[in-house]
């Protein structure tokens, strides 16, 4: 008896399903049309806008050739992710970025993130100084909206060009509410990096970018996956604001090496540098024959910041050099070019060396 009831029940359930589908289950298409996030692409040039003579030219090409509208049109799938529009802010190779261009770009980003209709920003950028721009924006853009910097290592004309997918991933990250509040981000080679941590570590591979503390996450097939959060102050939690910065002071980097000449510090002073970043050997070491010179640099009111030419690790204060005694600052884990950016931003507020050292611990 139970068996027959079971069979009858099963048949009735099957009939109900057929009727439901036949009468027109509420169509998924009846859902309210969801408006797509609005993402603005600010183009500055670089290889992602580059063009070479042949598909085999993955390293020989001209950067900064392709306009932003063509970049966007070259990835029609962007329209599945967001409403995307472009602005051509610059059209340069990024080794030609200047402080003036950094400030100009920062002010445009700041204007756009204040627009309630804009959900995220993508900045297409050359890879050479991409890490500097990303860190600068991480310090001065007072918004939790995603700002994603992206480049490519091969021009779009090359075989296995990486720019299309990098741009697609950058728009996915910029459009994703999960990307908010993580600081300025860099999307390269499927990874999502903090603009603070990331650096160009290889100058000839598509996997050029890395962070010694690891990426924050990945972007895969139109989705973001997050595994860690930034530990240092940024964006809405920063004491710096692009709206109160008009110019950046000159900060020079002197590269340390065996038998180095101390003339380089004199040249830095002549350039009007307000700080000298010493890209020292090892743990930011200074040769014994250069200590007096660096002390004289400090005595002239110029900040001395000990960074290291070694890619990974971090400089320890008062380890091989008596920083307290000489009134020097250590760059923590920041490479020389990032230490330069942080020093320039900090010195817009005329900080003491004690406050400058706090800033290097916190950002
Ligand atoms: N010269 C490089 C630059 O514009 C090209 C690139 O890799 O983007 O940064």
TrEMBL record:
Its EC number is 3.5.1.38. Residues 1-30 form the signal peptide. Residues 38-226 form the L-asparaginase N-terminal domain. Residues 251-360 form the Asparaginase/glutaminase C-terminal domain. Substrate binds at residues 94, 127-128. Coiled coil: none annotated. It is an enzyme of class 3 (hydrolase). The keyword Hydrolase applies. The keyword Hydrolase applies. Belongs to the asparaginase 1 family. This is Glutaminase-(Asparagin-)ase. It comes from Methylibium petroleiphilum (strain ATCC BAA-1232 / LMG 22953 / PM1). The lineage of its organism: Bacteria, Pseudomonadati, Pseudomonadota, Betaproteobacteria, Burkholderiales.
């Amino acid at each position: 008896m139970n068996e027959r009831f079971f069979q009858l029940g099963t048949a009735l359930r099957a009939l109900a399903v057929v009727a439901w589908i036949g009468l027109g289950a509420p169509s998924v298409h009846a859902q309210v049309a969801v408006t797509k996030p609005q993402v603005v692409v600010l183009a500055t040039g670089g290889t992602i806008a580059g063009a070479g003579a042949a598909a085999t030219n993955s390293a020989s090409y001209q950067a900064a050739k392709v306009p932003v509208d063509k970049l966007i049109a070259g990835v029609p799938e962007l329209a599945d992710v967001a409403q995307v529009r472009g602005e051509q802010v610059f059209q340069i190779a990024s080794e030609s970025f200047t402080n003036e261009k950094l400030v100009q770009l920062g002010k445009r980003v700041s204007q756009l993130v204040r627009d309630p209709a804009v959900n995220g920003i993508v900045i297409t950028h050359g890879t050479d100084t991409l890490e500097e721009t990303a860190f600068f924006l991480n310090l001065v853009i007072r918004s939790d909206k995603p700002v994603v910097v992206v480049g490519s290592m091969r021009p779009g004309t090359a075989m296995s060009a990486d720019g299309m997918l990098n741009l697609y991933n950058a728009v996915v990250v910029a459009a994703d509410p999960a990307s908010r509040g993580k600081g300025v981000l860099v999307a390269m080679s499927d990874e999502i990096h903090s603009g603070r941590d990331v650096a160009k570590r290889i100058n000839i591979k598509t996997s050029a970018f890395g962070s010694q503390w690891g990426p924050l996450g990945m972007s895969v097939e139109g989705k973001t996956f997050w595994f860690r959060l930034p530990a240092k102050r940024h964006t809405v939690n920063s004491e710096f604001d692009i709206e109160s910065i008009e110019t950046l002071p000159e900060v020079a980097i002197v590269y340390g090496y065996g038998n180095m000449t101390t003339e380089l510090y004199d040249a830095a002073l002549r350039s009007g540098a307000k700080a000298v970043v010493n890209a020292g050997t090892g743990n930011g070491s200074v040769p014994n024959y250069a200590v007096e010179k660096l002390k004289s640099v400090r005595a002239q009111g110029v900040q001395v910041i000990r960074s290291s030419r070694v890619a990974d690790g971090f400089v320890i204060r008062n380890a091989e050099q008596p920083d307290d005694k000489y009134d020097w600052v250590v760059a923590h884990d920041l490479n020389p070019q990032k230490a330069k950016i942080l020093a320039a931003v900090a010195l817009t507020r005329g900080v003491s060396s004690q406050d400058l050292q706090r800033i290097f611990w916190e950002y």
